[in-house]
Amino acid sequence: MHAPLPVIVQGLGPIGRLIAEAALADPFLEVVGAVEIRPELAGRPLSDFVDGAPEVAVRPTLAEAVADSGSAGGIVLHCTGSYLDRVAPQIEEALRQGLHVVSTCEELTFAEARHAEIAATLDRLARGAQRTVVATGVNPGFLMDALPASLASISHSIRSVVVRRVQDPSRRRTPFQQKVGMDLSPEEWEERRAAGGFGHVGLTESARLLAAALGWTLVDWQHEMVPCRAERQDLVTGTLETLEGSTSDGRTVRLHFEANAAVAEEYDEIVVDGTPPLTLRFEGGVFGDDATVAAVLRAARVIPNTRRGLATVLDLPLR
User: How far apart are CA 115 and CA 88, in angstroms?
Assistant: First the structure.
């Protein structure tokens, strides 16, 4: 086996800590640094937050972490935010430090969908540095885009692809519960939606990524977001969000994302209306946090063999 790939974990929120913990157990990776801007964490050893971690200091900047570790040419596992315009400077800095980037930023999964100019800049910088930038996760990054794209590869004359993800947010971390409005009053839910930055981030990216894999151009879009309510309960139990995109000749991609503490059952389902028709269903659903961690580690392992520039999960080799 080759020497382990050096990785720096940037962002020590709930997902970042899970990623760091799992990376420590991965024989292909070596955790050599950590970055966190919160002053109460910076300067303390990573082992204070992640069991079994090396005695490396958590640094407030990536440049300091690289200097400590001598890990130029390694990989930053980037998990600081969902919105690309806010985290793009961090990714640019990673490229200046000579690092590959594997990010959990949802909007980076198919960056040109919302941020074409930022996407072009990151692609140019990554190519110039001979590095790769890719975003991954379970959703977006797998269940609603890469996996249905793979499933659709064994069907032809496809008329529609429908993906349904139904989960109970009460089993998830607190930031996710807040993002889907769990335990808000209906009035608070409406206020949060009107303010923006609310609900699931990534449906647009998943739809465009899936359409790109199918070779479709989606020209007509319908998007809806509504609060979920349980009978005889005053508080919102979550959010149902749907997005449908259609081609000019009527082929459709439909994504159904429901995070609802009152659901009777959790599941993930993909239905391909083609020849042959296909249905793939995960009873009980796929637990998102653990699956996201696995997706990030897998991307890190294969990133040295991925094309340079800004890539998508469709560009990642299987091994």
Answer: 10
Structure confidence by residue, pLDDT tens digits, 64-96:
999 998 766 799 999 999 999 999 999 999 999
- Measured distance CA(152)–CA(104) in Å, rounded: 25
Q: How far apart are CA 209 and CA 149, in angstroms?
A: 9
Residue 142, classified by CB atoms within 10 Å of its CB into exposed (0-12), middle (13-18) or buried (19+), is: buried
Q: Which of 211, 198, 197, 200 is nearest to 254 (CA)?
A: 211
Give 141's DSSP letter: T
Helices (H), 130-201: 146-152, 174-179, 186-195
Residue spans of beta strands (DSSP E) within 180-314: 220-229, 236-246, 252-260, 267-275, 278-283, 309-310
pLDDT tier, 1 (very low <50, low <70, confident <90, very high otherwise): low
- Positive or negative: CA dihedral 143, 145, 146, 149: positive
Residue ranges with strand state E in 62-138: 75-78, 100-103, 132-135
Instruction: Compute the average pLDDT of residues 230-244.
Output: 90
pLDDT tens per residue across span 2-37: 789 999 999 999 999 999 999 999 999 999 999 999
What does the block give as tokens for 275?
Answer: 């020849």
End-to-end CA distance of the chain: 14
